[in-house]
Design goal:
The chain has 242 residues and is an alpha+beta fold. It folds into 2 domains: 103 residues, Alpha-Beta Plaits (2-Layer Sandwich); 133 residues, Pseudouridine synthase. Helices cover 22% and strands 32% of the residues. It starts with 9 loop residues before the first strand and ends in a 15-residue tail after the last helix. The mean pLDDT is 91.
Amino acid sequence: MSEAHAEPQGVLLVDKPAGITSHDVVDRVRRLFQTRRVGHAGTLDPMATGLLIILVGKATKASQYLMSQEKEYLGEVTLGTTTDTQDAEGETLETRPIPALTEKQIQEALHSMLGDQYQTPPMHSAKKVGGKKLYELARKGLEVEREPRFIRLNLFELSTWQSPRFTFRVQCTKGTYVRTLAHDLGQKFGCGGHLSMLRRTVSGELSVDKAYTLEALEKMSREQKIACLVPVQQIVPSIALG
């Protein structure tokens, strides 16, 4: 196989748009690079945007290492309404009046959630229990016991507050459900709430500032697309590649 037509390999940073799944992005990258060997290092919900780490060719071996990195998100909570998915894509469960909160009260609530803790995965998630994805059970109206998982919040700060919404920045360990953080904050304030926007900006040392949109990639020549792939050795220690 000539070098020009060798299997592409490397790490591709994609700025995922809202409204599609992470698997949809993988499928589009497979077509763009004309290879089946494509994976990702951590999903984003369909409503979420931002950094999606796509692994092409032998770089797929780095999946577990890259997934384990700390993440940073920008998000928005809408108070007063709870949903069955804990985010804006779900059905409304309850609507309550919003108290007259100050920025200081909200920041104190965010600060109280810093540190090590256990979080119960929401029913509407891809986590498997007994071989079944939780969201598949939730769609059937079932709720099962979920084992809490250990997470850590290293930063959780308020950005803006304009009732009924506030925006925030959070740095957290892998496996953290940010929509559950939004739901829990709504409960703290006694009015309920849900996650109405989420954007992943950082994963480990990788930033969305260096990511490409799918539209930009689709306009590139094959050579230009290949040039967007970062050699996995530049990002991942050789010991993590096996």
